[in-house]
Amino acid sequence: MQRVDLDKISQEEMELMFKQSKLLFKLNHTEPMTEEYDLILNELLDNNIGENSRITTPFAGAAFDKIKIGNNVFINSNCLAMARGGITIEDDVMIAGNVQLLSNNHDEYERQILTCEEIIIKKGAWIGAGATVLPGVSIGKYAIVGAGAIVTKDVPDYSVVVGIPAKVVKTLDKDKFSE
Questions:
Q1: CB distance 117 to 99 below 8 Å
Q2: pTM, 2 dp
Q3: 88-104 pLDDT tens trace
Q4: CA pair distance 165, 179, nearest whole angstrom
């Protein structure tokens, strides 16, 4: 787990945060599916977005340079990506509207300290509307996270999880997925 003291952010880090805030504002106010939109999105994500991947605005979050998005990924509107701990989204992932990906949290006692752990969403996973994924969680290959679930622990490959906290309710037949 990485710990970041917000009281000791460097000038360089502050400048990057300001730059990303401006790019985010610009992205959220640019016509989607245009060359300008794609250029802003690529700059915001430090060119860490794969081919045929889309993010529908509005988009929100922080530390966008720590997000890596594979090919054929779709992220619907109102996604909150708090990425200080890193967020990796592999190929063919679908993320519904109003999903929160929270790779950082605050220390319970020293609240200016961020505790950061990477979120990994593996190939073909589907995150349902309004779900929340907490720091350090890995979502397995072709797994489904049900709408409104709060995911506090790793989700195994081919599993369906629902609820608060999210629990496995079904295992999908892996032979029905083409690799």
A1: no
A2: 0.96
A3: 999 999 999 999 999 99
A4: 30
